[in-house]
Amino acid sequence: MTAFFQSACCNMQTGSIYWASNYGQYSDYGIFEVDPSTGSAKLIGDMSYDGTNNEDQLTGLTTLEDVEQPRFVNAVSNLGVSFV
Q1: Measured between alpha carbons, how far is residue 71 from residues 30, 41, 74, 81 in Å?
Q2: Residue 71 CB-density burial (10 A; 0-12 exposed, 13-18 middle, 19+ buried)
Q3: Residue 12 φ then ψ, to 5°
Q4: C-alpha separations of 29 from 3, 35, 49, 68, 73 in Å
Q5: What are φ and ψ of residue 74, in 5° steps?
Q6: 3-state class of 54 per DSSP?
Q7: In this predicted model, what pLDDT tens digit does every residue of 13-32 receive, in sequence order?
Q8: Mean pLDDT, the chain, as a whole number?
Q9: Within 13 Å and on the Cβ side, how many CA atoms surround 53?
Q10: How many other CB atoms are there within 10 angstroms of residue 57's CB atom?
């Protein structure tokens, strides 16, 4: 178990998974693209410690994409609430 923060997200349009994680030594940190069919990860962004006292870690990864709003076939109508 790592003592560092990790984060991941999935681009629903492409199926790509992105993972920000510590790897190797304590100062090795990067962003990986994970192949969901094999689980293999490819380093696509290196943020390893460079001696300048930056200890960058990413959390809350997300992708920007257009997502269609869900349409409910049987939407609720005539709903009431009664407090007793």
Answers
A1: 38, 35, 9, 24
A2: exposed
A3: -70, -20
A4: 12, 19, 8, 34, 45
A5: -115, 75
A6: coil
A7: 788 899 988 776 666 788 89
A8: 78
A9: 0
A10: 13
